[in-house]
């Protein structure tokens, strides 16, 4: 944590040096030199932090030193942030006052006020100067103390120095993995190579401790593999990827007496391997590959291209990007968790016990212990070894309930592979990962929300033009690649990405933070069962199931240095007291308050004193009717989440000039977001309601919000005017849009709105609901990047637009277009100009759903169109060549489906609540037409 925090501080100090805030430093004697000294001390400490971060795992004194550094760094960050905030707020207020004076054409002078203001600023500067001086003295002592540790200025992973090298020898006993082994063996022995390339590369990818090396050993020593290959080579690569050492090891395996292996010139080594492999069918295992550069890999692979057809390279790695770099993703073997039955067998084997003779009592306890392994073979092995000398029931029960043994043992045996992956992360990515333990186990993380949380803690330092959101996405993707995140789910429209953290990974992260930095307190547990840590060490606190009590008040107020407070599933009577206490915790950057039911009734004005606050989530507080005016003092607020605050009527964001993310979905009573037109840097807005009254938002409020990203729902209420045209066409970063014309009754006005909402061609997903304007606007066909389209309850639409011309469309959902009776060639995009050239209708469409079309009777293909054309024999039209899933539901009057559908690569056909169609395709002759489709449901 300290390494990333120091990096953040140095970035902040460098920014301050170029800021107007620097001018304030010069107004107080000695402050500028103190700030410069801060930078120098931090830079000196920064040089050894990588070594210190790695040594803290086993050295308590280093851990203490880093803890002191972290505390001082946090306080420095608070002081700098407070100073910068006050200066910029004064600048903003001065500009507002000047603008108001111009508007009123009066002088904005009040000598007594100015005089008092100058006095307050002078006092504040002196206070800041004193705090900076005191912090700098503490930092200087920490810098001096580091000399006693003999830290190294190194970027090399020290754990790798003690990690035992793997060998090709198999383990004495293995369990499970037969299916994976057989799959890999079949790939190794297959006569065909991908694109006739030799050698074929097969990566085994999985998180640390999953058994990649064990599996590779099983394959390597398989009798069929031994007899199939002329040469077998095993090289443990580890980190860093040094092609010279790898080449030397390969030569050693091929020809132990070859003197070329002693050369340090890559060219000589490559030529030697090239000659030794000529005409030979070989298998090369590269075990534990981390981060080769493309140039390094290309040089090494040159030496392997002289082997016979059928040669193979088997790679084990924790990183999917390694398979990508090696251009071997199609052959990738993703190693999943070991089945519980095999984990049990591995556990008992290492416990030196016969599984079949274990007593029922021990079996029950043993099963609970093995469940904690969650499919990790290394965990099962470690836990089994721990039980080797424990044979009595009370001993097993004590182990099952103990918390201390895990830290001592897992540090060496289970956490080691995770630690390898962890140390390979950048400091910023490490800190992002560690922050995830503010949430309990099995929590479902949302990618966008997680990135915003990281932003609130200043973990994402943007350099140059690179956006913080992009940096956060890179961190997230990297953690997915390293298997720290699992169960990644992407919704059908690519709008939301969620994931989980494995329980063992969660324990590992808690171990790294020593349960001090991030603390979770569950109030459903008794006081004796809760974790007790020093209050002054906790910076991120999560409360679960909190209830109102005197102990809650004293408990919460004792954590004065909190930067994150999360309250999940709190009782109704505790929500308001928690928030009243929250506003007294002045260092807070992040506040999340999710009640069990209704939650907050009001927010105290004191919230304006939380000047450091960046992230405020009040979602689910259904009784909250208004936000206090003091919210305007939250100058640094970046994210405001109000999802499901159904009683909220108005939100005022006029002074929240740093707001980047605003979420108001589910705020059914919200009619106006005051000042939203000023937030030209707003990046996320989930819902925007447009009305026709003075106290409601207007379409033109969106005109200059051209930095919007992700998804947006625009909901019209009443009959709003379209005063501005081309409101949406400049929003190049907006990927998903939902247009909901709810409660709008005038078709002509809706048509005007639709025509004025010309969209940017980069849009990827569009949903149009309750549109009564008849035909859709022409700009619909200009959306060349659109992948997902939904048309729902557009009742005045008499015919479908020529959607077949949309080159990128992959998913199409049509529902309740009650005016449509016939679908034909126009829908496919076929017209008179099509006959003279090759045309592909719906070239990328994979999924087509048509639901609840009450009047729809006819669906024609190209037959009707061709009868009217002179070139009736023309066969230059291809229709839906990628269609894999078709659903027809609640279409009571449709009589048949067009023949072109049976020429598509359909994999799923589902016809439900459409009786005529269902009866038709149950008949033997018609059933034969669709018999080639693997998955058919008629009902």
Structural features, described:
Pfam families: LRR_R13L1-DRL21, NB-ARC, Rx_N, WHD_DRP. Residues 184-354 form the NB-ARC domain. This is Putative P-loop containing nucleoside triphosphate hydrolase, leucine-rich repeat domain, L. The chain is α/β, with parallel strands linked by helices and 939 residues long. The protein has 6 domains: 2-157, no CATH class; 164-334, P-loop containing nucleotide triphosphate hydrolases (Rossmann fold, 3-Layer(aba) Sandwich); 340-416, no CATH class; 430-502, Arc Repressor Mutant, subunit A (Orthogonal Bundle), CATH 1.10.10; 514-685, Ribonuclease Inhibitor (Leucine-rich repeat, LRR (right-handed beta-alpha superhelix)), CATH 3.80.10; 798-939. Helix content is 37%, strand content 15%. The chain has 31 helices and 32 strands. The strands form 7 sheets. Strands 19-20-21-22-23-24-27-30-31-32 form a 10-stranded parallel beta sheet. It has an 8-stranded parallel beta sheet with strand order 9-10-11-12-13-14-16-18, with helices on both faces. Strand 7 and strand 8 form a beta hairpin. It is globular, with a radius of gyration of 33 Å. Residues 108-115, 155-164 and 870-874 have low confidence and may be disordered.
